[in-house]
Amino acid sequence: MEASEKVVVSYLDLSLSPTGKVLKMVRDTLLVKMEQDASGDAKVSWTKDNRKLDETPRFDNVTYADAGFYVCEVSVAGIKRSQSFQLVVEGTPVIKKMTEHHSEDGRHKVLTCEAEGVPRPSVQWSVNGTNEENSYINGKATHKITVVPTGNLTITCIATNKLGNHFMALNVSSLIKDEKIPGKGAQDDSSDQALLIVFIVVGLIIAAAFVGLFYWLYIMKSRRGTWKTGEKEAGTSEESKKLEECNAKV
Fold first, then answer.
1. φ, ψ for residue 31 (rounded to 5)?
2. Distance of CA 207 to CAs 45, 198, 221, 224, Å?
3. Least crowded by CB within 10 Å, which of 13, 184, 196, 249?
4. Half-sphere exposure of 156 (CA within 13 A, CB side)
5. Average pLDDT per 10 consecutive residues for the chain, totaling 250 residues
6. Helix (H) or strand (E) holding 208
7. Which GO molecular function entries does the Swiss-Prot or TrEMBL record give (predicted)?
8. Domains of the chain (ranges plus CATH)?
């Protein structure tokens, strides 16, 4: 009688949803569902752009950073199965911020416009400037230009792609007022002080002249009163002498 042999059959089936290319708008929701049927305990692993993930991906609020190539791999007893999907996230451009700062030499101003959007948004400015730096990472575009504003300006950045556009304005101050001529402020202050001193001296001279005039008029008036009193006293003495002579003759 022949001995019976035990035959072990291993099997593995894998089902993944979604698969292929998946297009979502930013802030959408994506449900990932994986089902596997195996002859034993199966090992499940996930990768994104060839980087291992700790758990099954979930997308309750899709962001630009979620875009990538996802692979689900299941293995059991020497059998491997894998399925994948490519997540593409798109959205209208949104300018997050605009900033300005002086260049290292202090002769220019560097303007920065940061915008998010997929496909990559093109960035335009309301002024002409020299391109300083451009980058685009995970749906975020950074655009820098250098300008030399000769007056206070309101500069606009416009980000555009096939889904729409967005703009933001920034008030940029002039570089001219920041450049001061050495010594000019001190010269102006000295001139103002000298002019003030001249006004004070002239005022004192005029005041002294008025005081002198009033004093002279007072002296003249006093002298006239003394002369009149002297004349009256002299007349009275002569009349007294004549009266005495008349009395003696009698």
1. -100, 125
2. 102, 14, 21, 26
3. 249
4. 6
5. 66 93 96 90 93 94 95 91 96 96 86 95 90 87 90 92 96 68 49 73 76 73 58 53 56
6. helix 184-249
7. cell adhesion molecule binding
8. 12-90 (2.60.40.10), 92-178 (2.60.40.10)
